[in-house]
Amino acid sequence: MITSKQFFVSAIGTDSGKTLISAILARHLNADYWKPIQAGDPRDSEEVARLTGNTLTIHPERYHLKLPASPHLAAKEEGITISLNDFELPSTGNLIVEGAGGLMVPLNDDDLVIDLPLKWNMPIILVCNIYLGSINHSLLSIEYLKNRNANVAGIIFNGPETRSTESIIEQKCPWPVLLRVRKIDNLSGQSIEHYASQVKF
């Protein structure tokens, strides 16, 4: 049974800041961290460990693939077919699970990243990073989550303050904004602690 303190971190696309947000959330909850699929190096689990001062439990990836690409392609290069049945949640308390890429990144010919939290009925936190085109990508992701009847805890903005962008997304989003992470020039444990104290749950 999934508790209210276990969350799946996904995003509107690749390089949206999921690892940074996962580190902040893990610190906020004093939670374990798990990235089920890592494609390429460096490993995101190593970055989370560094940002949190190696004080949290980091669970090993189910798949650590060599090619920095979509999981279905990276797995195919190694003669592997990923199945949803391959994944079992770590037996623990508070937990942050980081997805690979965006919601609709393929795991195989049939399944997508979104199918993992849906399988576990795990609350999703959607990272909406700010860039030209992010309104469209955010609203498409929000509509997709609504259509899949996903369990969504809220969204997190990541990037420079752009109220015109954020306000439009907020108007169309049925879930709360849990945090706003602005540009961090010197990423450190102190900045992680700063934002961890601002998470709204």
Features:
201 residues, alpha/beta, Rossmann fold, 7-stranded parallel beta sheet, two-stranded parallel sheet, 7 helices
CATH superfamily: P-loop containing nucleotide triphosphate hydrolases
How many independent structural domains?
A: 1
Overall 3D geometry? Answer: globular
* CATH architectural type: 3-Layer(aba) Sandwich
Q: Give the SSE string.
A: EHEEHEEHEHEHEHEH
Q: Please tell me the overall pLDDT.
A: 96
Number of strands: 9
Broad structural category: alpha/beta
Strand order of the largest sheet: 4-2-6-1-7-8-9
The total of helices stands at 7
Q: What is the CATH third-level topology name? A: Rossmann fold
Distance between the termini: 20 Å
Helix content: 25-40%
Q: What is the alpha-carbon Rg in Å?
A: 16 Å
Q: Uncertain runs with pLDDT below 50, 5 residues or more?
A: none
The profile of the biggest β sheet is: 7 strands, parallel
Family: Belongs to the dethiobiotin synthetase family.
InterPro entries: DTB_synth_BioD, P-loop_NTPase
Catalytic activity: (7R,8S)-8-amino-7-(carboxyamino)nonanoate + ATP = (4R,5S)-dethiobiotin + ADP + phosphate + H(+); (7R,8S)-7,8-diammoniononanoate + CO2 + ATP = (4R,5S)-dethiobiotin + ADP + phosphate + 3 H(+)
Protein name: ATP-dependent dethiobiotin synthetase BioD
